[in-house]
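Colleagues,

For the teaching module next term, I've prepared a clean inverse folding example: a structure given as tokens, and then the sequence designed for it. I'd like students to try predicting residues themselves before seeing the answer, so please don't circulate the second half yet.
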């Protein structure tokens, strides 16, 4: 019922179903979530309702598509805004975990796969998706206020590509995942004149890092 209401953009019905306990994370018989239906249909208000009730913006369909991949112009900004908030929250959680000594070894030891659209971890969860590019461009604009820039985590390279467009004096990238690091080198990032790649966890390579603007 929730997927059907989301697909048709019935905001009041979606709100009623969610209030009565409908599962915003549900996958229908086609492997699509209510948020995917709302995004594809351009129903921004419905998408916002679902996100506020915990609908996963990065869940993937059987064909490997997320709500962001399916979204129309009308719902794109809603998803992007939520993704930005999620990134900020996850960043805070990660910093607190690192401060308490909790390692991220499970990810670093797992295999990842790459495509033009996303980076997937060993559990087939999307680590980064191409539709997040505008989000990464916002990040780049925020940090490129001076000549020396530091980015931790290369992923698909979206934020680093955006940083390069600002032509920083020095662009340092810290990457801890062996496969991602290897891919960076294959893509030629180690040959860029203003780029310095440091392999390892940022906590471990701090002594190798300088000061940044």
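(Answer key — instructors only)
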């Amino acid at each position: 019922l929730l997927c059907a209401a989301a697909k048709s953009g019935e905001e009041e019905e979606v709100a009623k179903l969610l209030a009565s306990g409908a599962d915003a994370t549900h996958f229908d018989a086609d492997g699509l979530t209510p948020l995917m239906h709302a995004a594809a249909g351009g129903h921004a208000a419905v998408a916002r309702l679902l996100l506020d009730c915990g609908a996963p913006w990065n869940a993937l369909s059987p064909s490997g598509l997320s709500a962001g991949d399916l979204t129309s112009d009308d719902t794109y900004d809603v998803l992007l805004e939520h993704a930005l908030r999620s990134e900020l929250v996850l960043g805070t959680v990660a910093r607190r975990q690192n401060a308490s000594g909790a390692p991220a070894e499970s990810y670093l030891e797992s295999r990842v796969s790459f495509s033009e659209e996303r980076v997937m971890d060993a559990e087939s969860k999307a680590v980064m998706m191409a539709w997040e590019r505008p989000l990464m461009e916002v990040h780049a604009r925020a940090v490129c206020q001076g000549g020396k820039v530091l980015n931790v985590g290369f992923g698909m390279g979206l934020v680093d590509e955006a940083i390069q467009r600002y032509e920083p004096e020095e662009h340092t990238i810290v990457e801890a995942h062996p496969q991602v690091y290897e891919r960076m080198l294959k893509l030629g990032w180690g040959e860029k004149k203003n780029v310095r790649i440091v392999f390892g966890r940022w906590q471990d390579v701090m002594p190798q890092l300088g000061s940044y603007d």
